[in-house]
Amino acid sequence: RRLVVLVSGSGSNLQALIDACADPAYGAEIAAVGADREGTYGVERAEKAGIPTFVHRVKDYPTRDAWDQALTEDVASYEPDIVISAGFLKLCGPRFLAAFPGRYINTHNSLLPAFPGMNGPGEALASGVKLAGATLFICDSGVDTGPIIAQCAVPVEDDDTVDTLTERIKEAERAQLVESVGRMVKGGWKVEGRRVRLG
Ligand code: GRF
User: Binding of N(1)-(5-phospho-beta-D-ribosyl)glycinamide: at which residues (predicted)?
Assistant: First the structure.
């Protein structure tokens, strides 16, 4: 099975997938890594692993739709079975979603539907919840609203800062991503309304 991974940042989730794919028993290969900005450590990690990369910056295109089209075409050229947003900080447009129906997934650092958006760990901490976590879901046109594939919880400790909580979430998030993608690759998945069933 072929994966394309999209990143905007440090790419630690990408690295977890690169490491998992090194074992042929995992059943997947990363065909390409794309980014929406130059100079990300995620793209550097891909280059080090010998994975093809591409960058499409919104500001290099006349319209958001033109950017969306360029991104869609590049991703599609690698014929992915699953497209993974791993810290990709752009909402993809209707063209992109239509090209990879039910196959474009995102990992988010909160227990959705709580705390969508850019500051999941900070909002969890400020709200006083005692459990935080990460959610893997199928992207739709909303912000962190799609059908949920998997969730994992971690405790919020009394002395947590945003940084310590973020790190605890990310560790669990990476393990969840690797495990869930592995299951999707091996057994497939079904979307029934809001519910996703892994094979
Ligand atoms: C992840 O925690 C993800 O939930 C959030 O950004 C982080 C990306 O981290 N949207 P990395 O680039 O994979 O290290």
Answer: 11-13
Q: Which residues are annotated as a binding site?
A: 11-13, 64, 106
pLDDT at 199: 84
User: Per-residue pLDDT averaged across 1-5, rounded?
Assistant: 97
Q: Which CATH number fits domain 1-101: 2.40.30.10, 3.40.1170.60, 3.40.50.170, 3.40.50.150?
A: 3.40.50.170
Position in ligand 1 atom list of the atom nearest CA 14: 13
Catalytic residue among 45, 108, 170, 174: 108
Q: Which residue has the tokens 């130059």?
A: 38
Spatial separation of the C-alpha atoms in residues 104 and 183, rounded to whole Å: 15
Assess whether the C-beta atom of 107 lies below 6 angstroms from ligand 1: yes
Nearest-CA residue for ligand 1 atom 10 is 87
ipTM for the complex? Answer: 0.96
Hey, which CATH number is domain 107-199, 3.40.50.20, 3.50.50.60, 3.40.50.170, 3.30.420.40? 3.40.50.170
Task: Enumerate the β-bridge partners of residue 134.
Answer: 152
Asked if 1-101 and 107-199 have one fold, the answer is: yes
Coil, strand, or helix at residue 140? Answer: coil
Whole-number Å distance between alpha carbons of 155 and 168: 9
